[in-house]
Structure formats: structure tokens, C-alpha cells
Amino acid sequence: MAQYSRVSGTVGLITLLNPPVNALSAAVRQGIVDTLDKALSDRKVKSVVICGHNGKFCGGADIREFSSPLTGPPLIPLIQGVESAAKPVVAAIDGVALGGGLELALGCHYRIAHSKARLGLPEVHLGLLPGAGGSQRLPRLIGVPAALDLITTGRHVTGAEALQLGLVDKVTDRNTVDEAVKFALSVADQPPNSRRVSTFPCPRHPDLDALFEGAMQRVRQRARGALAPVACVQAIRAAATLPYAQGMERERELMATLFTSGQARAQQYHFFAQRAVGRWSMPSGARWDTTKPGAVHKAMVIGLGTMGRGISVALVQAGVSVVAMETNEKQLMEAKQAISSMLERGAKRRGVAPALDKIRYSWNMEPAADVDLVIEAVFEDMALKKKLFQQLSALCKPGTFLCSNTSGLDVDQLASETRHPELVVGMHFFAPAHVMKLLEVVYGSRSSPQAVATAMELGKRMGKVSVAVGNCRGFVGNRMLKPYLEQAFFLLEEGTTPEFVDQVLEEFGFAMGVFRMSDLSGLDVGWRVRKADGLLNVSEGHSARIRQGCRYSPLGDLLCEQGRFGQKTGRGWYQYDKPGGRVAKPDPWLHGFLEKFRTQHGLVAHRIDHQEVLERCLYALMNEGFRILEDGIAAGPEDIDVIYVLGYSWPPHRGGPMFYAGMVGLQKVLERLEHYHQEHPDIPSLKPCNLLRKLVVNGSPPVHKWREFLKKPQSQL
Ligand SMILES: CCCCCCCCCCCCCC(=O)CC(=O)SCCNC(=O)CCNC(=O)[C@H](O)C(C)(C)COP(=O)(O)OP(=O)(O)OC[C@H]1O[C@@H](n2cnc3c(N)ncnc32)[C@H](O)[C@@H]1OP(=O)(O)O
Ligand SMILES: NC(=O)C1=CN([C@@H]2O[C@H](COP(=O)(O)OP(=O)(O)OC[C@H]3O[C@@H](n4cnc5c(N)ncnc54)[C@H](O)[C@@H]3O)[C@@H](O)[C@H]2O)C=CC1
């Protein structure tokens, strides 16, 4: 709804009221229509101010209403009504003006913003475009290049940046509503005719064709296969080339296509899934809303390699004092330099001073005695980590939380080395740790709710989306990666090439196919893990393609034995112009190697098509996701999907693997898995899991109902 009052004698004040972000629900839209009518028909009122309750102008359309038929007044004529008002209307922008909220402000004749307010048109992240005139008004107000940037990236700008762009008329550091009321008084006698943005000509640009071509290329590269960014560019092109009314018609057509697309549904699901994972619970019944996190003022990071450096930066940027510890002298020197320059770059981007004084470095463990939390990021070696946890347990003050950044080792084993296993949790970051938004918080069987709450909260402070997961090999993300990678290797054995597999996966929307990704992260990483798992030993009398009773592909190991570790050595699944080179080229040597391998193992290459690559890689991964749900390692499909979109570059417009399974149809996923498992009975990961069967038997319910079919795991506390 919206509240109305008359202030300072002649200003009609409309306050949007729909906590927490004053989203434009049907009731709010009706409220705006009614209160605007009141203001315009009150002869004492000379000008109008629109603001939002509780310091937030408006978070945009109410996304929850998108899944049901429209009720209440539609937004486009509502904004048109504001713009065509005969009395000046001023938007008082505090907190946020996003999506439909900013579109409403664009319909006002003046915009006053707090310098710290955040303004933006983030619809592209919801699979939409600014479809309430935003794609037509914004370029008219701030020019085409700036509008392209804001609309296709969906990025927020501060009030201060908005002023520079010409998006707002004034910024203030004082009370925005008071300033807007003063402003409204000052323009009360000025007819708003010349202030209607829809009547502005779109500022000219010397080479529109090149501008739009460049923009189209960029959005296609950034989000392969996503419809919304492309539609955003098309709508802005309409603004630049057509009269307003025709541009609006084009905006409406494009919006209608997006609105009904599966992609918009997927991205809106992802929006709510990201928020839902914050409402974690543990098998014991401990929950996010009843558990108080411990205070973390000072933390220690142990091991300053790839991960430790990023983790230290993320902690410092979150305001935590850090002691960064490393035993290798050269690494320590390099880490100091790398961390300082990451902090400096980050501070420059955010327009603040780098908090270099928040971090100090150490050769030894002594400072552990005085910290609230430790994050260990040494080599992935259980014996080494165990020793470290023993030392920490003896050194740290009572109550210090002990966390490991292990990618998949048993958190319970680490906890068992300590005097207080309840203080131990996994904090699994993703590289680069100061950039990637995902954090898997791994609770072991003895982790206390407070330890989980502390890690979840610390993740949030670092700007991450934290997902609580149970303890098993590889947790959620890496556990699901295993069958996916395995299928890719098997497909090579059976007749295809890395280029073809990657092309199929990149067309699906992944930023990188599995082989390019593997070259980037280093083939030796998986090799070391397989070695530790005893998978490199061929049992006597068995084929090299069978290990521990199951089908196994030794291809990755054979490349590593030749020193082909990927990009860093200039050779891997592809060839590069030099070690560290970035451009992957098909490698004739690799093709010959694959042929030799097939001959040696009596394999006859067959034609593998697009469908088989996609289904075998993705369905095997989803199948593991169903198993993870069955085992109670993830609380629900949303948790898995958030992990995959934020941590493994699963395309957001496909929602995540579990959501995608629902889109494809669970029945179809089941049938295809059955088919592939019949063809390859020696690959257990292709055997459809029970939960998938159960869901199909129960009529393939939508993804938000799957939790009803999950067993309640036994309490592990
Ligand atoms: C056949 C069809 C034909 C169609 C024809 C087409 C014609 C269409 C005409 C016009 C359509 C107009 C469409 C439009 O206006 C487009 C939009 O406005 S889309 C929405 C754009 N806005 C956003 O994307 C903002 C989303 N929100 C945020 O980014 C953050 O929430 C925000 C920065 C505002 C605040 O962040 P923070 O403080 O961190 O809080 P939370 O994120 O945790 O949010 C708190 C709480 O609020 C819920 N929420 C936030 N925004 C919205 C929203 N816009 N709608 C509904 N709910 C929202 C959020 O989910 C949290 O609640 P939980 O319960 O925790 O989930
Ligand atoms: N690299 C990645 O993408 C990811 C790695 N991880 C995990 O993070 C951990 C670290 O991985 P990386 O940073 O890649 O390794 P890394 O090899 O880059 O760095 C490890 C660092 O630990 C230091 N170190 C070894 N023993 C130590 C000790 N006793 N005390 C202090 N420092 C010691 C080494 O000198 C080295 O600098 C591993 O458990 C890994 O599985 C988790 C997520 C992603």
C-alpha cells in the first residue's frame, strides 16, 4: 500500500509501504494510483514527493507476483500517469531504487537521491528487461552507452555516480525526504512539461551500428545462450532509433517473450534460492534463526598459497583483523606482495583506503593463541592437516573456531584431532576466494550449531552466499563434479574429442567446457587426489580401465605422466603457445594419443552426438545431486543449485542442475539414465538413484515440493 499526507503546507507526500523493500505489489500499485489522485485533485497541493517507508525507496516489482496472473493496476500506465501529472513530482531516493522502482523514479519529473542510495535496473538477472519504460526512458536521460552498460550488466550505482551520469538531479547526505520536500517547494510553480523523460530525444551517437554490434558481442560472450541480455540490447536500440511510442511497443513485445520463457523462471528461482539457503538447519533441528553466531574480530589464515591469499583479502575487506601465516619463506614474501596489491586494487574499486594495517604476517603458529577463528588452507593432505589441527587445539584460547578450506577431506577426522570437535567446521571457498560469491560451510557430525552459524555469518560478512552442507567426500559441489568429469573422459575413450565435448557444454551455457576448465585448474590436482585415493594402482590381472571394481579412465593420469598439466605447462587436453598461455588450440598429438589408446584397449570409436555428450555429462551430475539429497548432505535442491550457479559457472538462466532436471522432465531424465546405464552397466554413476525414481512415481512434483519426499536424516548431534 501507500500512505498519503500533506507536508509543509503544499507538498503531497506519498510513502510506499511494503516492507522490507517496498516492492511494487498490486496493493502498492493501487496505493500509488489512489494517493496520486488525491494529491493531484487537492488544490492546496502544488507539488508531490514520492518516497519509500523505512529509508528504502523501492526494490522494484514484487517478484513473487510474477508467477500468478496480474492483479491490480499495471505499472506502465501507472508510471505514465505520474509522468503526465500537471504538478511537479519528485522522487526521494533513499536505500534502493531498483528495477520497477527506478522506472517509477524515471517517470517522476525530478530525482533527489541520498549519496549512498543504490540505483539500478537489475532485471537482466531475473531473465527480464526493464519493461515498464526503463529501456526507453533511461537512454533518453543518460545516453545510449551508459544505458547499455547499466541495463545489460544490471549493476547498481550509488547516488553519487548517478549524479555524474545525469540519472538524478541532486544528491544529499542529509535526510533525503526533507531535501526532496524542500526541492518540491522550490519547483512548485514550474510546469513539469519540459521534465517528462519520455519526450526527450535520445542523445545522438556518432556510430550507433558499431555501438550496438559491440554491445551484442559482449552480452553474447558474457552469458552464452541467455535471452535477456540480448533483448535488453534490442530494446535500447529501439529507444535510440524509434519514436517513444514505437519503442514502448518493441519493449512490450520483447518483455512478453522473456516473461514467458523458461529462462526468466529459472533466474527468478535462483534469486529466491540464494536467499533461501541462508535459512539453514541441521539434522539436529538447530536453525539459522535460533542460533547466535560467535563474534569474530580476529582470524588467522594458515597457508598462503592460491586460496589462503584470497581468503585473507576477503576477511580484511570484511573488517576482520588477520594474521596470515606461512612456513615457506618464498611463499610468504610473494603472498605479502600479492595480498597488498589485491587489497589496494579492491580499495581503489570501492573508493576507500586499503586496510593494509588490518593484516600482519607470521612464520609461526604462536599468534593462534589470540584469535577468534582459524582458517587452514595448507596442501590437501590429510596427515598434514591433522597435525595442524592437533597443534591448533593445544594453542588456541578456549572457544576459538577451527575451520578448514579442504576441498573434500573428512571434516570429522580433522575434528577428532582436537579437544573441542564441536568448534570445527569446513569453510570451503572457491578460487579466487576474494571474488567468488560461494562458500560451502561443512558441518561434521560433531560441529556445534554455533560453529555453523559463525561460519555462515562470517561468509555473509565477506559478501558471500553461504550454503550449509553435510560432510562427505567432496561435499556437494566436488562430489557432483566427479561423475561429470568421469563421463567426459569416457566419452573421449569412446570416440569424441575434447573440443567437441567443450563446444557442447559451452553452447549449453558454461563459461568453459570441462576440458578447458581442467586445463585451467591443472590436471595434476585431480591426479594427486586419485593417487591419494589409491586409484592409480592397477590390480593384477585387471584391465587398466577397471579400478576398485568400476570402470575407470586412466586418460588424465597418462597425460600427467607426460608432464601435461594443462595451461601452466603449455600442454594438457589442448596445446598453448607457451606455458601459462591462455589460448587453447586443438592438439593433433592428443588426437593421435586417443587413437592409440583406443587401439591398445580394443575400443572402436563411434560417433557421439551433441545429445549424448550433454545427457551423459549433465544427467550423471544431476543423478549425483539426487543422491546427495537422498543422503541428507544438502537440505534441498535450492542448496545444490546455488552451489552450482555460484561456484561452478552453471548458467543462471538454467537455474541450476536440479531445477534443470525439473525443466527437462524427471521422467525423461530417468529414462535416459536407464538407457545409458543399460549401455554401460559398469558405470555406477549412471544408475538412476532411488529419489529420482520416487519423484517420478509421485508424478514428478515441481522442485519446491521435493523436500516433502526427502527422508528426515537421523540427528547426528
Ligand atoms: C504474458 C505476459 C506478458 C507480459 C507483458 C510484459 C509487461 C510487463 C510490464 C511491467 C513489468 C514490470 C517489471 C518490473 O518492474 C521489473 C522489476 O522491477 S523486476 C524486480 C527488480 N528488482 C530487483 O531485482 C531487486 C531485487 N532485490 C534485491 O536485489 C535485494 O533484495 C535488495 C538490494 C533490494 C535488498 O537486499 P538485502 O538488503 O540484502 O535484502 P534481501 O535481498 O535479503 O531481501 C530481503 C527480502 O526481500 C525480498 N525481496 C527483495 N526484493 C524483492 C522484490 N523485488 N520482490 C519481492 N521480494 C523481494 C527478498 O526475497 C527477501 O525476502 P526473503 O523472504 O528472504 O526471500
Ligand atoms: N586451489 C583451489 O582452487 C582450491 C583449493 N582448495 C583447498 O585449499 C587448500 C589450499 O589449496 P591451494 O591454496 O590451492 O594450495 P597451494 O599449494 O597454492 O598453497 C598451500 C600453501 O600452504 C603452505 N603450507 C604447507 N604446509 C604448511 C604449514 N604447515 N603451515 C603453514 N603453511 C603451510 C604452502 O607453503 C603453500 O603456500 C587445499 O586444501 C585445497 O584442496 C579449496 C578450494 C579451491
TrEMBL record:
GO terms for molecular function: (3S)-3-hydroxyacyl-CoA dehydrogenase (NAD+) activity; delta(3)-delta(2)-enoyl-CoA isomerase activity; enoyl-CoA hydratase activity; NAD+ binding. One of its GO terms (biological process) is fatty acid beta-oxidation. Transmembrane segments: none annotated. It catalyses: a (3Z)-enoyl-CoA = a 4-saturated (2E)-enoyl-CoA; a 4-saturated-(3S)-3-hydroxyacyl-CoA = a (3E)-enoyl-CoA + H2O; a (3E)-enoyl-CoA = a 4-saturated (2E)-enoyl-CoA; (3E,5Z)-tetradecadienoyl-CoA = (2E,5Z)-tetradecadienoyl-CoA. Keywords: Fatty acid metabolism, Isomerase, Lipid metabolism, Lyase, Multifunctional enzyme, NAD, Oxidoreductase, Peroxisome. It is found in: Peroxisome. Pathway: Lipid metabolism; fatty acid beta-oxidation. In the C-terminal section; belongs to the 3-hydroxyacyl-CoA dehydrogenase family. Belongs to the enoyl-CoA hydratase/isomerase family. Monomer. This is Peroxisomal bifunctional enzyme. It comes from Oryzias sinensis (Chinese medaka). The lineage of its organism: Eukaryota, Metazoa, Chordata, Craniata, Vertebrata.
